[in-house]
Please model this.
Amino acid sequence: MANEELVALPVTKLSAMLKAKEVSPVELTEAYLERIERLDGDLHAYITVDAKGALAAAKQAEGELAKGSANGLLAGVPIAVKDQMDAKGLPTTMGTSFIKDVAGEDSTLVARLKDQGAILLGKLNLSEFAMGGNVVHPHGTPRNPWDRERQPGHSSSGSGIAVAASLAAAAIGEDTAGSIRIPASWCGVTGLRPTWGRFSRYRVASVSWSMDQAGPMTKTVEDCALVFQAIAGHDPKDATTSQAAVPSFQARDGLNGLRVAIVREAMESPALDAETKAGVEQAAKELEALGAAVTDISIPLFTNGGLISAAVTDADVAYVHRHLLREHAAEYDTPTRRRLMAGMLMPTELRDKALRFRVIMRRLVMEAFAQVDVLVTPTQSTPAPLISTNAGGFGSVEEVLRGFYGVRGATGPFNLAAVPALSVPCGFTKGGLPMGLQLAARPFDELTLFQTGHAYQERTSWHTRWPEL
Amino acid sequence: MMPLSREQVQAMLDSLGVTSTEEDVTEVAHRVNALRQALGGLEHPDLDSTEPMSVFPREEA
Model:
């Protein structure tokens, strides 16, 4: 098989080929490294490529596979992580120009990937401090592989690019208000923001402690479930992780008995692009054809989710940066600096109000889950915008309301509610840009998301299309 | 909630020891005032009877 075909395969297929010795971890790692070398000078998915470390790990995996002692779920599979997570011996830059500390220890997520046999290719590009919206990317402007003049989505930009462009078999992103699902949607890949507490945050740099959650970004839902199973679960190093059992994926035969509701407010948003709306409506029909009972539901506060999630996050992140901002203000990218400054000036009254609204949002979402099993929305209201439209600043209050809070409008509510949400590709615009369908489920019910998303992908082919590069 | 002027924003940033440019202050004022307008104006009948929380009890599926 040619390298171009090999790297485009999902993790489940690569894993089977590795175990059957149809391909070696070294050959596979070299194929990804060659592709990174060829394409990443323009796409800028990576900040650090650890070719030496990856090849050494691949040689070790090759020996273990030959001996039959490679038992990990990801044995020999080349993966990359957002440069927000520590990997021993590699710098963690957080997408900045002024932080380059070499990690002395693995984050739990990286340690678990390695324990499961994964090969770490490197660290992926992101918006500065995982906050989204910056203009200057000191490690190169990340570009959408479907159209290099367009944004790949923030803040896990490199993770979305790496999967879509087959620069890694899978990637780990992090999602505070949509930062996995937005690039998943705009890059045409599958991305899961797990239930808060599912993934360890140990040595994952914090944006907002109560909103942050890392998660897998992959070519298929089946891959997503596999990576999830490999690294989710309680971590004694992170007291906020849950003791809940981590489910192993089992496909279900159709979706009979599943109750699905489209969130009415998300579909009635004036910002929703007509093609995206049609894509989500068609996806709902596919779910219905698979046996699900599809209806719609109202969550009145839903349209304020972007505003409330940004308020919660901005107060948290301003505190995290209180010293760094005083010492390095000029070194931050302009939009990051100004967002942090605004967060520092948030009155306690509004911080408290945002947290009260968070509880109300959680209650409304849980009331919806008393009626249905899965909630459906577009992941983003539009396909990927042009890079040139990111002016990086706001010239009026109205621009802030539309351009800052609006972009997190469909994803933020589920972060606030601390429930899992999955984005899967649901079609392409006439201009060839991917669109994303967001599915959300009850806390700790990622299995229902995987089963629903997998059944949808078995019926459709959007997740099998990749950009020609 | 009243909007803040540029001068008020500048004074608050100065008091926090944060160095800012004139352009920073202008945009920070827009950001601060957008939040004060939008979240300050958002109401719900249960708001005052709801206690603020950042995390929720672990509910299994």
About this structure: The mean pLDDT of chain B is 93. The interface with chain A takes residues 1, 3-4, 9, 12-13, 16-20, 23-24, 27-28, 30-40, 42, 44, 46-47, 50-56, 58-61 of chain B (CB under 8 Å). Chain B has two helices and no strands.
